[in-house]
UniProtKB/TrEMBL annotation:
Residues 4-79 form the ACT domain. It comes from the Bacteria. Transmembrane segments: none annotated. The lineage of its organism: Bacteria, Bacillati, Actinomycetota, Actinomycetes, Pseudonocardiales. It comes from Saccharomonospora amisosensis. This is ACT domain-containing protein. PROSITE patterns: ACT.
């Protein structure tokens, strides 16, 4: 079974290699590594690993944190394809098929930023509308989005009152960014965490901004 493990580690030569060695000794096969954030001597990396049947994911935490200075932010099952460099391909696909642009965006974003699902939502006449949704997006109705209109990309409070109980039960972390106008937004959910970091939110905002220009041109 595949897992996504997010680690904070000293940004120094050999540390990531030591983590990889420790995970390998625990029986994990590393499929990919992606740098999420880097600065002030600390790196945040996402590793997708494969564990043999019967091995518990707790073994990943124990192994990674056996390396000095390493902290595990989160471990969660991962069934997607790590596709963190697909922004350009997605924008080109949307430009070629603008009528389906919102659907393509909603389906493509989770693969790019390692999220569980995404929705394109809007507020019109005091009603919440779902304009597009990824395949894995929850079907729970959204009766209110008090953060709309939205002026800039942000991490949302995962315990706020507007959030459906089923999302809270799954520990869903949320981020949103305007999509061309303040009353339309791209909402992204990551059940089980980890929290969205500043670099990920900035990446989401950048992508949404480009797509909005493409769709409105």
């Amino acid at each position: 079974m595949s897992f996504l493990i997010r680690v904070q580690l000293p940004d120094s030569p050999g540390t990531l290699g030591a983590v990889a060695t420790a995970l390998g000794m625990a029986g994990a096969d590393i499929l990919s590594v992606d740098v999420v954030e880097r600065g002030e001597g600390i790196a945040v990396d996402d590793l997708v690993v494969e564990l043999p049947s019967g091995r518990l994911p707790d073994a990943l935490i124990t192994a990674a944190e056996s390396v000095e200075g390493v902290e595990v932010d989160a471990v969660r099952p991962y069934a997607g394809v790590l596709d963190t460099h697909r922004e350009l391909e997605l924008v080109e696909e949307i430009a070629a098929r603008p009528v389906s642009g919102l659907d393509l965006l909603a389906e493509g974003v989770p693969k790019i930023i390692r999220a569980g699902w995404s929705l394109v939502v809007a507020r019109a006449d005091h009603e919440v509308r779902r304009l597009a949704a990824s395949t894995a997006a929850p079907e729970a109705p959204l009766r209110d989005l008090p953060w709309l209109p939205l002026e800039r990309a942000t991490v949302l409070d995962s315990e706020d009152t507007w959030i459906p109980d089923t999302w809270k039960e799954l520990g869903t972390e949320l981020a949103a960014t305007p999509l061309g106008k303040p009353d339309r937004a791209l909402l992204v959910g990551r059940p089980g965490g980890p929290m969205f970091r500043a670099a990920e939110v900035a990446r989401l905002a950048h992508l949404a901004g480009i797509v909005a220009v493409v769709l409105d041109s």
